TrEMBL record:
It holds the Pfam family PRY. It comes from the Eukaryota. One of its GO terms (molecular function) is zinc ion binding. Residues 20-60 form the RING-type domain. It comes from Gouania willdenowi (Blunt-snouted clingfish). Residues 264-458 form the B30.2/SPRY domain. This is Tripartite motif containing 107.
């Protein structure tokens, strides 16, 4: 009995060494990790599924992936030998039914293994929470993107629809104009055809009457009747010249057509600017209706130059008349924006303002003294920041010809940077602005120099 007991203890110890720590059964296709611990191939592969990092269930040493698993041929041979030697005894001790074995494994599992599995389950739950959080955020991004894209498509389709409507309206107006002119000529021709027809009819009647008078024996009566028919009632022979008039000319339509073309170009340009603004919310061009008469704007409305000769701009209430100033066509009320300004040839003031609250005449129209503007002035090599009409001297410096402006409605800041060709950009000044209504970009040329110029890049 003692020998038998020792033999049973040896068998139990050997079986424990040949048992997988994961499934608690004899190894099946045993593989060895880099740390030396052995597990069933299916068990270690199942535990590693879905994980970015892999670690040994025994010692937690990390390994790269299942490719680093090495099949343990020696352990496989030992297990097969043990199975052959144990025979039916091993089959009786170990229950092959998966569900019953799983139940017994859980009840017989020692405490350290339970703790290890609980730790691994906790780690998996943590990773699952992280994955679910990533999925939630990605779905939020997807919803935000699809909503923004739908709004973008709607805005673009509306603008393209306006272009189609303008084109259709222009086509109908031109057609109506041409038809009116052609009908006027056709009406005249029809009137002359009618008159010619009446003239021919009268002549036929006169000829017939004259023939009937040939039977008249009384010569005096004959002459009197003939004179009455042909002399006193002459057919309208002067109408012969009218028949030779040339076809109707549409030259008189050209001035009206040119006016329509001008209106169409202005309307299309407005829509094109809206399209560009839709594609680029930071698009910035200058408003010709606000430019001082001594300021010239480029065709793309992005460059301002000085003219010693005042331009014959229309007199409009929004036009500056006292200072060389101009505003942007666009207003800004949300988002983040960045612009670059190339300035040369003249001292300057650039910044943002409430357009509706900025006067257009006299001292109140000066950008730097207005209580509803935030701007930077460079004059006499001195930089000064003006916030709501109050100046803050900064430093005496030779500013480069290129500045950067950043406007953020998210952080409520308007920042200026100096961009040098030899070094990185340097911060000049930042306004903390709590904007309550849309703002416009504003520029003032402080001296009328022929080489003064500003070009904006957005």
């Amino acid at each position: 009995d003692l020998g038998q007991g020792n033999k049973n203890c040896f068998d139990a110890a050997l079986a424990s060494e040949l048992t997988c720590p994961i499934c608690l059964q004899l190894f099946n296709e045993p593989v060895s990790l880099p740390c030396g611990h052995v597990f069933c191939f299916d068990c270690i592969q199942t535990m590693g599924e879905g994980l970015d990092q892999h670690s040994c269930p025994e010692c937690h040493a990390e390994y790269s992936a299942t490719e680093s698993l090495v099949k343990s041929i020696k352990m496989c041979s030992i297990v097969e030998t043990y199975r052959a030697a144990a025979g039916r005894r091993l089959s009786d001790v170990q229950i092959t039914d998966d569900k019953l074995h799983s139940h017994n494994s859980k009840t017989e599992m020692d405490e350290p293994k339970k703790l290890r599995l609980e730790s691994e389950i906790t780690e998996l739950n943590h990773r699952l929470e992280m994955a679910e959080d990533v999925l939630r955020k990605e779905k939020e991004v997807e919803l935000t993107m699809t909503t923004a894209d739908a709004q973008m498509r709607e805005r673009v389709n509306n603008l393209l629809g306006q272009i189609r409507d303008l084109s259709q309206s222009y086509s109908e107006k031109v057609t109506h104009l041409v038809e009116e002119e052609l009908k006027r000529g056709e009406t005249g021709v029809r009137s002359r055809v009618h008159q010619a027809s009446e003239w021919t009819k009268q002549l036929r009647q006169a000829v017939l009457r004259a023939k009937s008078l040939m039977t008249e024996e009384d010569e005096a009566a004959f002459r009197a009747e003939l004179y009455t028919q042909l002399i006193n009632k002459p057919v309208e022979e002067e109408k012969e010249d009218a028949l030779a008039e040339p076809p109707v000319s549409l030259a008189q339509v050209c001035p009206m057509l040119e006016n329509m073309n001008t209106t169409l170009r202005e309307q299309l340009e407005k829509i094109h600017r809206s399209l560009r603004r839709t594609f680029n919310p930071s698009e910035l061009t200058f408003d010709p209706e606000t430019a001082h008469p001594n300021l010239l704007l480029s065709e793309d409305l992005k460059t301002v130059t000085f003219s010693s000769v005042k331009q014959t701009y229309p007199s409009l209430p929004q036009r500056f008349t006292s200072f060389f100033q101009v505003l942007s066509s666009q207003s800004f009320s949300e988002g983040d924006h960045r612009w670059e300004a190339e300035l040369d040839g003249s001292p300057w003031i650039i910044g943002m303002c409430y357009s509706k609250k900025l006067a257009r005449h006299g001292v109140p129209s000066a950008l730097e003294s207005n209580p509803d503007s935030w701007c930077l002035m460079w004059f006499d090599n001195l930089l000064t920041a003006f916030e709501r009409g109050r100046g803050v001297p900064l430093k005496k410096t030779k500013v480069s010809c290129r500045l950067e402006m950043n406007l953020s409605f998210r952080t409520h800041r308007l920042s200026f940077y100096n961009i040098s060709t030899t070094s990185e950009k340097t911060h000049i000044y930042t306004f903390k602005v709590n904007l309550t209504e849309p703002v416009h970009f504003a520029y003032r040329m402080m001296s009328g120099h022929p080489k003064a110029i500003l070009t904006m890049h957005s």
